[in-house]
Design a protein that fits this description.
Blueprint (H helix, E strand, L loop, with lengths): L1 H12 L6 H9 L2 H13 L6 E6 L1 E3 L1 E3 L5 E3 L5 E3 L5 E4 L2 H5 L7 E6 L2 H11 L8 H4 L17 H12 L6 H10 L4 H13 L3
Parallel strand pairs: 1-7
Antiparallel strand pairs: 2-5, 3-4, 6-7
Helix pairs in contact: 1-2, 5-9, 7-8, 7-9
Length: 198
Protein backbone atom coordinates (compact mmCIF):
# COMPACT_ATOMS: atom_id res chain seq x y z
CA UNK A 1 0.00 0.00 0.00
CA UNK A 2 2.81 2.42 0.86
CA UNK A 3 4.51 1.77 -2.47
CA UNK A 4 1.32 2.74 -4.33
CA UNK A 5 1.03 5.98 -2.36
CA UNK A 6 4.71 6.85 -3.02
CA UNK A 7 4.38 6.14 -6.74
CA UNK A 8 1.25 8.27 -7.06
CA UNK A 9 3.13 11.10 -5.35
CA UNK A 10 5.98 10.63 -7.83
CA UNK A 11 3.54 10.82 -10.76
CA UNK A 12 1.97 13.94 -9.26
CA UNK A 13 5.34 15.65 -8.76
CA UNK A 14 6.63 14.62 -12.20
CA UNK A 15 9.45 12.47 -10.75
CA UNK A 16 7.96 9.41 -12.44
CA UNK A 17 7.39 9.89 -16.15
CA UNK A 18 6.31 7.84 -19.12
CA UNK A 19 2.59 7.55 -18.59
CA UNK A 20 0.56 10.60 -19.49
CA UNK A 21 -2.65 9.07 -18.21
CA UNK A 22 -1.19 8.15 -14.81
CA UNK A 23 0.30 11.62 -14.43
CA UNK A 24 -3.07 13.20 -15.24
CA UNK A 25 -4.89 10.87 -12.83
CA UNK A 26 -2.38 11.52 -10.02
CA UNK A 27 -2.69 15.29 -10.44
CA UNK A 28 -6.51 15.14 -10.48
CA UNK A 29 -7.23 13.02 -7.40
CA UNK A 30 -7.06 13.92 -3.74
CA UNK A 31 -4.81 12.31 -1.13
CA UNK A 32 -7.89 10.62 0.35
CA UNK A 33 -8.66 9.10 -3.06
CA UNK A 34 -5.06 7.91 -3.41
CA UNK A 35 -5.30 6.14 -0.05
CA UNK A 36 -8.72 4.66 -0.89
CA UNK A 37 -7.33 3.32 -4.18
CA UNK A 38 -4.26 1.93 -2.38
CA UNK A 39 -6.52 0.14 0.13
CA UNK A 40 -8.62 -1.28 -2.71
CA UNK A 41 -5.66 -2.59 -4.74
CA UNK A 42 -4.04 -4.02 -1.60
CA UNK A 43 -7.23 -6.01 -0.94
CA UNK A 44 -7.13 -7.80 -4.30
CA UNK A 45 -5.80 -11.34 -4.40
CA UNK A 46 -2.98 -11.66 -6.96
CA UNK A 47 -3.52 -14.20 -9.73
CA UNK A 48 -1.48 -15.54 -12.61
CA UNK A 49 -1.81 -13.09 -15.51
CA UNK A 50 1.18 -14.04 -17.66
CA UNK A 51 2.11 -17.41 -19.14
CA UNK A 52 5.78 -17.46 -20.15
CA UNK A 53 6.83 -19.61 -23.12
CA UNK A 54 10.45 -20.05 -24.17
CA UNK A 55 10.71 -20.35 -27.96
CA UNK A 56 12.80 -19.67 -31.06
CA UNK A 57 9.87 -18.47 -33.17
CA UNK A 58 6.90 -16.24 -32.43
CA UNK A 59 3.72 -15.28 -34.25
CA UNK A 60 4.12 -12.22 -36.47
CA UNK A 61 2.31 -9.38 -34.74
CA UNK A 62 1.13 -5.81 -35.13
CA UNK A 63 0.01 -3.11 -32.70
CA UNK A 64 -3.77 -2.93 -32.83
CA UNK A 65 -6.64 -1.24 -30.98
CA UNK A 66 -5.95 -0.18 -27.43
CA UNK A 67 -2.20 -0.23 -28.16
CA UNK A 68 -2.22 -4.03 -27.82
CA UNK A 69 0.17 -6.28 -29.71
CA UNK A 70 -1.93 -8.81 -31.66
CA UNK A 71 -1.28 -11.77 -33.96
CA UNK A 72 -1.21 -10.95 -37.65
CA UNK A 73 -3.98 -12.86 -39.44
CA UNK A 74 -2.70 -15.85 -41.39
CA UNK A 75 -0.57 -17.54 -38.74
CA UNK A 76 2.87 -16.44 -40.02
CA UNK A 77 5.83 -16.71 -37.65
CA UNK A 78 9.28 -15.15 -37.35
CA UNK A 79 12.42 -15.65 -35.22
CA UNK A 80 12.11 -14.18 -31.75
CA UNK A 81 15.63 -12.79 -31.74
CA UNK A 82 16.41 -10.92 -28.55
CA UNK A 83 12.87 -9.79 -27.73
CA UNK A 84 9.91 -10.48 -25.51
CA UNK A 85 6.65 -10.65 -27.42
CA UNK A 86 3.47 -10.44 -25.31
CA UNK A 87 0.11 -11.14 -26.89
CA UNK A 88 -3.32 -11.79 -25.40
CA UNK A 89 -4.34 -15.36 -24.64
CA UNK A 90 -7.76 -14.42 -26.07
CA UNK A 91 -7.69 -11.34 -28.30
CA UNK A 92 -11.43 -10.72 -28.34
CA UNK A 93 -11.67 -10.81 -24.56
CA UNK A 94 -8.67 -8.48 -24.08
CA UNK A 95 -9.86 -6.01 -26.75
CA UNK A 96 -13.14 -5.76 -24.86
CA UNK A 97 -11.15 -4.92 -21.69
CA UNK A 98 -12.31 -8.03 -19.85
CA UNK A 99 -9.86 -8.43 -16.94
CA UNK A 100 -10.23 -12.22 -16.74
CA UNK A 101 -7.98 -13.06 -19.69
CA UNK A 102 -4.24 -12.72 -19.44
CA UNK A 103 -1.31 -12.75 -21.81
CA UNK A 104 1.36 -15.10 -23.10
CA UNK A 105 4.93 -13.79 -23.03
CA UNK A 106 7.19 -15.41 -25.61
CA UNK A 107 10.82 -15.21 -24.51
CA UNK A 108 14.07 -16.52 -26.04
CA UNK A 109 15.06 -20.05 -25.04
CA UNK A 110 17.22 -20.11 -21.92
CA UNK A 111 15.90 -16.76 -20.66
CA UNK A 112 14.20 -18.13 -17.56
CA UNK A 113 17.32 -19.95 -16.30
CA UNK A 114 19.55 -16.94 -17.04
CA UNK A 115 17.07 -14.68 -15.27
CA UNK A 116 16.85 -17.00 -12.29
CA UNK A 117 20.64 -16.86 -11.89
CA UNK A 118 20.64 -13.05 -11.92
CA UNK A 119 17.59 -12.72 -9.66
CA UNK A 120 18.74 -15.26 -7.07
CA UNK A 121 22.51 -14.61 -6.96
CA UNK A 122 23.11 -11.26 -8.63
CA UNK A 123 25.44 -13.03 -11.10
CA UNK A 124 28.26 -10.59 -10.21
CA UNK A 125 26.23 -7.74 -11.76
CA UNK A 126 23.80 -6.78 -9.03
CA UNK A 127 22.37 -7.92 -5.70
CA UNK A 128 19.84 -10.74 -5.35
CA UNK A 129 16.31 -9.39 -5.78
CA UNK A 130 15.04 -11.25 -2.70
CA UNK A 131 16.99 -8.91 -0.41
CA UNK A 132 14.37 -6.21 -1.03
CA UNK A 133 11.47 -7.95 -2.80
CA UNK A 134 11.30 -10.97 -0.44
CA UNK A 135 12.23 -14.63 -0.87
CA UNK A 136 9.15 -15.32 -2.99
CA UNK A 137 9.49 -11.99 -4.87
CA UNK A 138 5.97 -11.13 -3.69
CA UNK A 139 7.06 -7.91 -1.99
CA UNK A 140 8.42 -7.02 1.39
CA UNK A 141 7.06 -4.13 3.43
CA UNK A 142 6.71 -1.17 1.09
CA UNK A 143 8.81 -2.84 -1.61
CA UNK A 144 6.51 -4.06 -4.39
CA UNK A 145 6.07 -7.62 -5.61
CA UNK A 146 7.77 -8.52 -8.90
CA UNK A 147 6.65 -12.15 -9.20
CA UNK A 148 4.10 -12.61 -11.98
CA UNK A 149 4.41 -9.06 -13.36
CA UNK A 150 4.16 -8.57 -17.13
CA UNK A 151 7.60 -9.13 -18.63
CA UNK A 152 7.54 -6.07 -20.88
CA UNK A 153 6.54 -3.90 -17.91
CA UNK A 154 9.51 -5.18 -15.89
CA UNK A 155 11.95 -4.46 -18.73
CA UNK A 156 10.52 -0.95 -19.22
CA UNK A 157 10.83 -0.14 -15.51
CA UNK A 158 14.40 -1.48 -15.19
CA UNK A 159 15.48 0.42 -18.30
CA UNK A 160 13.74 3.65 -17.18
CA UNK A 161 15.40 3.45 -13.79
CA UNK A 162 18.79 2.78 -15.38
CA UNK A 163 18.60 5.66 -17.88
CA UNK A 164 17.24 8.04 -15.23
CA UNK A 165 13.89 8.73 -16.89
CA UNK A 166 12.06 7.25 -13.91
CA UNK A 167 12.66 9.16 -10.72
CA UNK A 168 11.32 9.14 -7.21
CA UNK A 169 12.05 7.39 -3.94
CA UNK A 170 11.86 3.78 -5.15
CA UNK A 171 13.84 4.55 -8.30
CA UNK A 172 16.63 6.12 -6.28
CA UNK A 173 16.90 2.90 -4.26
CA UNK A 174 17.09 0.84 -7.48
CA UNK A 175 19.64 3.02 -9.32
CA UNK A 176 22.77 1.14 -8.18
CA UNK A 177 20.95 -2.20 -8.44
CA UNK A 178 20.39 -1.78 -12.19
CA UNK A 179 23.44 0.21 -13.26
CA UNK A 180 25.45 -2.80 -14.54
CA UNK A 181 22.57 -4.70 -16.16
CA UNK A 182 22.51 -5.07 -19.94
CA UNK A 183 19.29 -5.13 -21.94
CA UNK A 184 19.81 -8.91 -22.29
CA UNK A 185 20.01 -9.18 -18.49
CA UNK A 186 16.79 -7.18 -18.15
CA UNK A 187 14.99 -9.44 -20.64
CA UNK A 188 16.13 -12.51 -18.72
CA UNK A 189 15.13 -11.05 -15.34
CA UNK A 190 11.72 -10.18 -16.74
CA UNK A 191 11.25 -13.67 -18.23
CA UNK A 192 12.04 -15.27 -14.87
CA UNK A 193 9.98 -12.93 -12.68
CA UNK A 194 6.99 -13.15 -15.05
CA UNK A 195 7.13 -16.94 -14.80
CA UNK A 196 6.79 -16.88 -11.00
CA UNK A 197 3.51 -17.22 -9.12
CA UNK A 198 2.25 -13.78 -8.05
Amino acid sequence: MGYFVHEMADYKSGARKGSGSMTAIAKAISEDDVHAAADYFASLKPRQWIRVVETDTVPKTYVGPGNKRLRLPGGATEPIGNRIIEIPEDEAVVLNRDPRSGFVAFVPKGSIAKGQAIVTTGADKTVPCAICHGQTLRGLGEVPPIAGRQANYVVRQLFSIQDGSRGGVSSALMQQVVERLTVDDMLAIAAYTASRQP
